[in-house]
Design goal:
Keywords: Amino-acid biosynthesis, ATP-binding, Cobalt, Cytoplasm, Hydrolase, Kinase, Lysine biosynthesis, Metal-binding, Nucleotide-binding, Transferase, Zinc. InterPro entries: AceGlu_kinase-like_sf, ArgE/DapE_CS, Asp/Glu/Uridylate_kinase, Glu/AcGlu_kinase, LysK, Peptidase_M20, Peptidase_M20A. This is M20/M25/M40 family metallo-hydrolase. GO terms for molecular function: ATP binding; cobalt ion binding; hydrolase activity, acting on carbon-nitrogen (but not peptide) bonds, in linear amides; kinase activity; zinc ion binding. With 624 residues, the chain is of the alpha/beta class. The protein folds into 3 domains: 199 residues, Acetylglutamate kinase-like (Carbamate kinase); 241 residues, 3-Layer(aba) Sandwich (Aminopeptidase); 98 residues, Alpha-Beta Plaits (2-Layer Sandwich), CATH 3.30.70.360. It is 33% helix and 27% strand. It is built from 15 helices and 31 strands. The strands form 7 sheets. It has an 8-stranded mixed sheet, sandwiched between helices. The protein has a 6-stranded mixed sheet with strand order 16-17-21-18-22-30, with helices on both faces. A 4-stranded antiparallel sheet has the order 4-3-7-8, with no helix packed on it. It is globular and about 85 Å long. The N and C termini lie far apart (59 Å). The model has no long low-confidence stretch (mean pLDDT 93).
């Protein structure tokens, strides 16, 4: 079994932190949604609310729930040291067994525990509480409540690897060594999301997110910025908003969902765009979409399209598909939803956005969608925008596009820079070489380890490739070799960029011969592609560049893109790649995109698409 995957990365799966309030735990459908998330491969950390469970437990043991009246008139559960054992018991006997049973009913393995067990989460005590007793203000010093100060991230990561779902509930261990400390479950979820670098935080409630009018369940607020939520929140919703604000200090995309479901109600945004025409770009970059975790971004963009009257859906492969028109002349604009791993909080510095994916290649995809929105498509034409999945690893989305969305011309969403057009790419060959041999003592004569064999075969491959195609580029994406007990196992993933004068098929055969007896598995083999400058599509872009006053360049890149994937079967279809941003920033921690660059690319793209449609109309007219 491979330990390297397709791209030899330590990133495994998306992490969802999901806080489910005690009222929502009574709704079976929320656990169905959790099961579907797990079915998509996500790791899931649930945080369970306990108000209903505590009430039920206290009633069962005939003990009154103690409360405090605060200075502002609100009430809070009173938790002196003698109550904490009963609070823990309520979670362990009522709430957590309910969660465990619901998970088991869906075939999911679950680890359920209070956060104080094993010091999975530690909190420091809050200052004394100001309360009211009758008409007299009092200071309550024995209330066991606290603020999260430490998370056992390594232990929780191991639990998340071992179980389908990990569920924690308050209270937390106390940093002062005393009885456990009650912590707000929503805030606990936010702190866990930040500590574990979660991809997504969902705070499930009984309403459709945050409401503009607490008395009107239809007044949901779909989007809200940092610092804006509390003015719309009342009662317990204030704690959810507070938790969401805490999570905005991390990198997860944050939403309050409901009613009693994971369906997004209100999204919280950390990086307000400096202008309205940059809002979609900003929000697309904020939603984490590392390969195989594209669904949240796809659903957000589908909603954006439908709100503007654009036909949009998510297809069987998970691709976003948006289109206008149904005519026979078809233009495809193919971008991709996914990014390579690593995120950081998105920010705007003046007119420049920084964040994973802004260049590669959400800037292109958003420009395509906004171009589609503004476009008037004549009856005899169709313009389709696809945001493909897994471009960075398998191109599974693009292969689905190749087999289902035939087009007469294609624009690929990759950064060329606003003043350049990519008309060709090298081919791509990605292979895994692997060996498994019986273990031999390394002191024996002639014994070689799996690591020795990997080093040797990679050296042979590099030498053979240099002789067969000096312009080809070979990179070892990852190498792994271990003693597995009875056998030595080794593997490496190798990426070769193939120039036009070297056949991908010939190169595949050569690698098999040179690597023998080491096993070779072809992960991906796509040919290069070059579109002539005289094609109608390139000419449409040339006219657009001139009209926008841009002195352009034509590029033939040594990298590859989904253009290569389409080229495996699409013959004679003109294809170019165009999008804002500097491709040298792809996959780097300095990925950033300037608003001037983005807007210039938008203008060129819109004009080029219109030029292509107009040119095709003239061609059809002459033929008629």
């Amino acid at each position: 079994m491979s330990v390297l995957g397709e791209v030899a990365t330590t990133h495994t799966a998306a992490l969802y932190v999901v806080k489910i309030g005690s009222a929502s735990l009574a709704h079976e459908t929320v656990f169905d949604e959790v099961a579907r998330l797990r079915g998509r491969g996500a790791k899931i950390l649930l945080v369970a609310g306990g108000a209903a469970g505590i009430a039920a437990h206290y009633e069962a043991i005939g003990r009154p729930v103690r409360s405090l009246t605060l200075k502002n008139g609100s009430t809070a559960r009173y938790c002196p040291p003698e109550e904490m054992a009963h609070i823990v018991a309520a979670y362990e006997r009522v709430t957590l067994p309910r969660v465990h049973a619901a998970l088991a009913a869906r075939g999911l393995t679950g680890f359920t525990s209070t956060a104080q067990a094993g010091s999975l989460v530690t909190a420091r005590p809050n200052p004394p509480l100001r309360a009211v007793s009758g008409d007299r203000p009092v200071i309550v010093r024995d209330h066991r409540a606290g603020t999260v100060s430490e998370v056992a991230t390594e232990c929780l990561s191991q639990l998340l690897d071992a179980f389908d779902v990990v569920c924690l509930a308050p209270p937390a261990a106390a940093s002062d060594g005393g009885s456990p400390l009650n912590v707000d479950a929503d805030v606990l979820a936010a702190e866990l999301a930040n500590a574990l670098d979660a991809d997504h935080l969902r705070l499930v409630t009984g309403t459709a997110g945050l409401l503009a009018d607490a008395e009107d369940p239809t007044s949901g607020i779909s989007d809200i910025g940092r610092g804006e939520g509390l003015r719309h929140a009342r009662g317990r919703m204030r704690q959810k908003v507070r938790a969401a604000e805490i999570a905005l200090d991390g990198s997860a995309d944050v939403a309050i969902t409901g009613p009693h479901s994971l369906e997004v109600g209100t999204r919280f945004w950390r990086a307000p765009a400096p202008a309205d025409d940059l809002t979609l770009l900003s929000r697309a970059v904020e939603i984490s979409s590392v390969s195989r975790d594209e669904r949240e971004l796809a659903e957000y963009l589908v909603s954006w399209c439908r709100d503007r009257g654009i036909d949009a859906e998510i297809d069987e492969a998970g691709n976003l598909v948006a289109s206008k028109g149904s005519g026979r002349r078809r233009l495809l604009m193919l971008g991709h939803l996914d990014t390579v791993p690593h995120r950081w909080p998105v920010r705007w510095d003046g007119g420049t956005i920084t964040g994973r994916g802004c260049v590669d290649a959400k800037g292109s995809l958003v420009a395509y969608l906004e171009t589609l929105h503004d476009l008037d498509v004549p009856p005899d034409a169709q313009v389709r925008v696809v945001g493909a999945v897994e471009e960075e690893i398998t191109s599974a989305g693009a292969f689905f596009v190749r087999d289902h969305y035939r087009a007469d011309a294609v624009v690929i969403g990759e950064p060329s820079g606003a003043g350049a057009l990519t008309i060709g790419y090298y081919g791509l060959l990605k292979v895994r070489v692997a060996v498994a041999d019986p273990v031999g003592h390394t002191a024996g004569q002639g014994v070689t380890t799996a690591a020795d064999q990997m080093v040797d075969v990679l050296a042979r491959l590099r030498a053979a490739l240099a002789e067969a195609g000096p312009d080809a580029l070979l990179a070892v994406l990852g190498i792994h070799a271990v003693n597995g007990g009875d056998e030595q196992r080794g593997e490496a993933v190798v990426d070769v960029r193939v120039p036009a004068d070297l056949s991908v098929d010939d190169l595949t055969r050569l690698i098999g011969q040179v690597a023998h007896p080491v096993e070779v598995e072809v992960l991906r083999a796509t040919p290069g592609h070059l579109t002539a400058r005289t094609s109608p599509l390139v000419k449409a872009f040339s006219r657009a560049f001139r009209a926008e006053g841009v002195v352009n360049r034509f590029l033939a890149k040594k990298g590859s893109s989904d253009m290569n994937t389409l080229a495996t079967t699409w013959q004679g279809v003109p294809m170019v790649a165009y999008g804002p941003g500097d491709a040298k920033l792809d996959h780097t921690p300095d990925e950033h995109l300037d608003a001037v660059e983005y807007r210039r690319a938008r203008a060129v793209l819109s004009r080029a698409v219109a030029e292509w449609i107009a040119a095709e109309t003239r061609i059809v007219g002459r033929a008629a």
